[in-house]
Design a protein that fits this description.
mainly alpha, 70% helix
């Protein structure tokens, strides 16, 4: 999950030239928002071991989506990464469900596979 935050921070910083090429150019609000959010994402990448942080990860995307008020491209980043975090929440729940049922490969007992 920390890697996703680092990737998202890179995408956010790469959005600076996209926003500057837009209709209004790179305003102080848009530049400050993007750089500030990149810093927040990097800081969040170091906090991924805490309980309940996955919901913070999804919640920060709401801030990005609200950033569409500044520039549409910022909101687009939020929508894309909200989907990524929603998928991460689903996959995490699925692994937990399979773990609780003993269905993960390392939980299977039986004879070792025969080598050829």
């Amino acid at each position: 999950m920390a890697g996703i935050h680092i990737l998202e921070a890179i995408v956010v910083l790469l959005a600076l030239p996209v926003v500057s090429a837009g209709e209004n150019g790179l305003t102080v609000a848009a530049g400050s928002f993007l750089i500030g959010m990149a810093v927040v994402l990097i800081l969040l990448s170091g906090m991924q071991g805490r309980p309940g942080i996955i919901w913070v990860n999804l919640g920060i995307q709401a801030v990005f989506i609200a950033g569409a008020l500044i520039h549409g491209g910022i909101g687009f980043i939020g929508v894309i990464f909200a989907g990524v975090w929603a998928l991460m929440i689903y996959l995490r729940a699925e692994v937990k469900r399979r773990q609780d049922r003993g269905q993960l490969p390392y939980q299977q007992s039986g004879p070792p596979p025969q080598g050829g």
